[in-house]
Task: inverse folding
């Protein structure tokens, strides 16, 4: 009798064990739909971030170069005059050391190369192929002058484009003994006419006049010609 009861208990335990094995497990981990959704959102955020960064980089590449700033100065010629630009764009010399017409921006546009721009009118000094000085509303290659220090510590300014074809002698910015602007091919670097002494203004507060544009090289320049022999 005891053996029959024991055998029945063993049979019941075996059946219960087999039923437990065949039953699907309810403790298996299931993938959360929210988790996949979060990953999808994360991918979208990452993509949008990359697109935004790429767009910013593209805008930075398209951004124009900042305006080049010059040094406000007066150019004192060894002939005893300050170089000045009159309201009509003409160039000559003045004895007045406080005239606003004698204020210029010396703007670096290369290695020892400058543009000379009037603070009052906003026009640039330029030299054409005949050696005549004129003033230009836009910066062009004819507005480039090489700045060199001479033996006597005066500064000379020569055209970057033009020089004597046979001798190769440079053409210089200069004033004669009467304070008149000279043709560049008639100015010699050893003469006082070509010698200038820059006198920078430390406390410059500005003068009334047109806004000074940024330096940009233009293939076609709208120039205001002014020639004087």
Result:
């Amino acid at each position: 009798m005891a053996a029959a009861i024991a055998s029945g208990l063993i049979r019941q335990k075996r059946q219960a064990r087999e039923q437990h094995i065949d039953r699907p497990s309810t403790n298996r981990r299931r993938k959360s739909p929210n988790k996949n959704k979060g990953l999808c959102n994360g991918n979208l955020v990452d993509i949008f971030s990359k697109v935004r960064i790429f767009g910013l980089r593209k805008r930075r590449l398209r951004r124009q170069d900042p305006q080049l700033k010059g040094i406000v100065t007066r150019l004192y010629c060894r002939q005893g005059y300050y170089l000045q630009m009159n309201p009509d764009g003409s160039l000559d010399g003045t004895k007045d050391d406080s005239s606003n017409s004698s204020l210029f921006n010396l703007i670096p546009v290369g290695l020892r190369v400058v543009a000379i721009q009037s603070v009052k009118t906003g026009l640039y000094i330029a030299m054409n192929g005949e050696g005549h000085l004129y003033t230009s509303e836009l910066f062009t290659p004819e507005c480039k002058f090489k700045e060199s220090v001479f033996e006597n510590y005066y500064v000379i300014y020569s055209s970057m484009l033009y020089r004597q074809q046979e001798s190769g002698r440079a053409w210089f910015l200069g004033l004669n003994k009467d304070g008149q602007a000279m043709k560049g091919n008639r100015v010699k670097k050893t003469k006082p006419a070509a010698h200038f002494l820059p006198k920078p203004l430390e406390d410059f507060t500005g003068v009334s006049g047109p806004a000074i544009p940024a330096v940009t090289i233009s293939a076609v320049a709208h120039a205001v010609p002014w020639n004087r022999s």
Summary: The mean pLDDT is 77.
